[in-house]
Amino acid sequence: MLCAVYKSRKKDSTYLYVKQRDDFSAVPQALLDTFGKPELVTVINLDKREHLALADIDRVKQQLQQQGFYLQLPPPPEDLLAQHKALQR
Quick one: how far is CA 25 from the chain centroid? Predict the structure, then answer.
């Protein structure tokens, strides 16, 4: 399964996977407005990979099949204060 990966110019560390290069027809307009103009990062063959760096490859494949796109958001920031407080208890 080939897919194209785009990064957002508006949202740091946010990526959009679509089935075909430059085909955003399955992506809701509100998401595209928030995402900004997509910038192509790469085209990859998911069938030849076992994993992706920051996304679950099975979930990416499933979302591409079901809705035609997958949105990868950045991981939440670490809350070091909460971790410190938990260790103090």
Answer: 17
**Distance of alpha carbon 41 from alpha carbon 39, whole angstroms:** 6
Residues with Cβ within 8 Å of 57's Cβ and at least 6 positions away in sequence, in order, are 46, 49, 50, 51
More confident residue, 34 or 78: 34
pLDDT digits (tens, 9 = 90+) for 36-71: 999 999 999 999 988 888 889 999 999 999 999 999
**Could you tell me which residues come within 8 angstroms of residue 27 by beta carbon, excluding any fewer than 6 positions away?**
16, 18, 35, 68, 69
Residue 62 three-state SS: helix
